[in-house]
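ok so for the tutorial part 2 we go from a plain amino acid sequence to predicted structure tokens. step 1 is just haveing the sequence, like this:
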Amino acid sequence: MTGRQARLSTRTVRAMAAAACAALALTACGSTKDTASGGGGKGGDGKVGVIVPLLTSPFWQSYNDYVPKMAKAESVDALKTVNSNSDSAQQITDINNQLNQGVHGLVVAPLDSAAIAAGLDQADRKGVPVVAVDVAPEKGKVAMVVRADNVAYGTRACEYLGKQQSSGKVVQIMGDLASVNGRERSEAFRTCMKQKYPKVKVLEIPAKWESDTAASKLDTLLNSNPDIKGIYMQAGGVYLAPTLQTLKSKGMLKKAGTSGHITIVSNDGIPQEFDAIRKGEIDATLSQPADAYAKYGMYYIKAAMAGKAFKPGPTDHDSTIVKLPSGTLEDQLPTPLVTKANVDDKKLWGNTVNAAK
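step 2 — the prediction. this is what the tokens look like for a chain of 357 residues:
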């Protein structure tokens, strides 16, 4: 979420969302049962609106490129994607606009885990099923959440860094804590380090998925902590370039295997991260499946419009559907660790993304 984009505070967004939906009746979260009436298309047919959170990150650019291809593969009549431009209030407006256009289904990547409930309630009032991608809503009805295990992101990043640097200072550049993704990755990394690597001191940068915020705060942190040994970037799509630029400007960007190298692990699996691994600038990333997000977002919205329901358990695509505390179902897609040893694997979407365009 790069640039100085106009952003409302979480409190303001939630207040606006509550006002917008004051007259709407709240419904139970997480049900995947078919509704007898409403906007869902018969047999899974009908227009589908697709809302992306932003297009300033290579990850979301890739997801956006995959959407029309995966919609065609799943026989979904998807409209042109709508970009909420990192603005949670705008995302609620985008949802309402799509509903007013008569869509029969929505695939949404929420910006704010709580504020998105206002849009979900609007969709539920109209009987339009919603599939959430990447972020699990705290409240509101969705047919399925298509997402990676974000607790595993933080834990696996911790384990990788801890094996390389079992003592000293490491930094985690966090995402937006208004998002469940940012909270889960941050807490999992912090908890893992405390339990498994007690000699490691974790320094934290709340960066809100903003590249300029990450660069500025990392620069300040390095001035007082030039002895850091590791960095965990919660989103390579927005943090990779500013992190490498900041380290380079301070003469701290050393190639892997050389004296003074700072071990860096990331999340996303974008081509730019793979190139950085090949160059020895960073060491690893956890590949967040942009292609599978698009594919199964389309798959589940078609199923939801046809009235199909799902249950917790293993799937036929190497993932597991789990039931969240809210009652919502989440398909947790696999996220392989990418290092120098497997960075050229053609099965990784970051090596095949151009084919989606």
